[in-house]
């Protein structure tokens, strides 16, 4: 791509082209703003590309979706899905989850139902009917029929392509090193290729946000929460939807690729493939055809978790011209984030 221009006082400059930055770039461009998106690597090259990319309610506790912003996220994602032209690996097979005890699973379902969420309680026989490849069947499980998985890299690329169709400019290989100011106002960033200016700067760079904000004396509390994405090859689809159990969290990315998410122990400094071993053992014993699963790779990446575990969206206090954008889980919130930022900036 071409290099970004220098001073451009009429544009919005978005730093980061992961799912948050790509969604913001798309919504702002669609709203008619002049938008430039800068990415240090390539689209979805950070934690987004290593995301399990679960879109739905059964990923988290009911309380997580008790606020209006998160409640509206699924609806906004649906609108976004209808707007994007190219496919982005969406697989709507629902999600089946269960806890280590039946009582916990029932409480999980009851809590979601109390908030009006579309989550059902399945018997073991119903679980097997939906996922016939399971060898170990729980007594009961939660089922979210509307939950889905996407290809996060394809999703980001499509958002950026559509943003460019609406007039946005996207530049990869441009590392933002620090913020530029004029008086008390942020007016751009210093990049590896020189200064780039904008009338409003949107920091959507995940765990890099605190460092960039610190260059203008601003403290932003975002925790780096490591996660491991495991990618395996399968001869054919072993599961139909998303499965989250005490032993693994898995789904098919495509017909011959199965992905799994694994927590990273505090202080872990070993090879990510070590983290994949328990999941691989569980897959090979608990899935029909699991003995044919082969590990392709395992990657550890840092999820940006705003302090307090609530989306960080808004203008920075005490620093004019700077907008902060970070949230987790960002995939399901992508449409809601883009819509909120577009509302705030127009």
UniProtKB/TrEMBL annotation:
The keyword Oxidoreductase applies. One of its GO terms (cellular component) is cytoplasm. SUPFAM superfamilies: FAD/NAD(P)-binding domain (SSF51905). Keywords: Membrane, Oxidoreductase, Transmembrane, Transmembrane helix. It comes from the Bacteria. Residues 12-343 form the FAD dependent oxidoreductase domain. The chain crosses the membrane at residues 12-29. One of its GO terms (molecular function) is oxidoreductase activity. InterPro entries: FAD-dep_OxRdtase, FAD/NAD-bd_sf. PANTHER family: GLYCINE OXIDASE (PTHR13847:SF289), SARCOSINE DEHYDROGENASE-RELATED (PTHR13847). This is D-amino-acid oxidase. It comes from Mycolicibacterium helvum.
């Amino acid at each position: 791509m071409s290099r970004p221009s220098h001073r451009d006082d009429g544009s919005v400059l978005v730093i980061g082209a992961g799912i948050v930055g790509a969604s913001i770039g798309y919504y702002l461009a669609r709203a008619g703003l002049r938008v430039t998106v800068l990415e240090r690597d390539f689209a979805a090259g950070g934690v987004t590309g290593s995301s399990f990319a679960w879109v739905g309610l059964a990923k988290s506790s009911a309380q997580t979706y008790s606020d209006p912003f998160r409640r509206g996220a699924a609806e906004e994602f649906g609108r976004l899905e209808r707007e994007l032209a190219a496919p982005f690996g969406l697989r709507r097979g629902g999600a089946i989850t269960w806890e280590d005890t039946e009582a916990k699973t029932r409480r999980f379902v009851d809590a979601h139902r109390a908030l009006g969420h579309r989550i059902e309680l399945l018997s073991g026989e119903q679980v097997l009917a939906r996922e016939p490849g399971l060898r170990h069947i729980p007594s009961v499980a939660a089922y979210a029929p509307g939950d889905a998985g996407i290809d996060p890299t394809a999703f980001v690329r499509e958002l950026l392509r559509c943003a460019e169709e609406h007039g946005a400019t996207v530049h990869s290989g441009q590392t933002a090193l620090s913020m530029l100011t004029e008086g008390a106002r942020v007016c751009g960033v210093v990049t590896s290729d020189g200064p780039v200016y904008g009338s409003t700067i949107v920091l959507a760079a995940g765990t890099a946000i605190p460092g960039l904000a610190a260059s203008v004396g601003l403290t932003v509390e975002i925790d780096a929460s490591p996660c491991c994405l495991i990618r395996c090859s399968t001869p054919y689809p072993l599961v139909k939807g998303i499965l989250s159990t005490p032993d693994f969290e898995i789904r098919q990315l495509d017909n011959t690729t199965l992905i799994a998410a694994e927590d990273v122990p505090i202080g872990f400094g070993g090879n990510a493939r070590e983290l994949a071993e328990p999941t691989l053992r569980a897959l090979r014993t608990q899935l029909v055809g699991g003995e044919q699963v082969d590990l392709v790779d395992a990657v550890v990446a840092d999820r940006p978790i705003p302090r307090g575990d609530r989306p960080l969206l808004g203008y920075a206090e005490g620093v004019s011209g700077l907008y902060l954008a970070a949230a987790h889980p960002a995939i399901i919130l992508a449409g809601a984030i883009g819509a909120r930022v577009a509302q705030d900036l127009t």
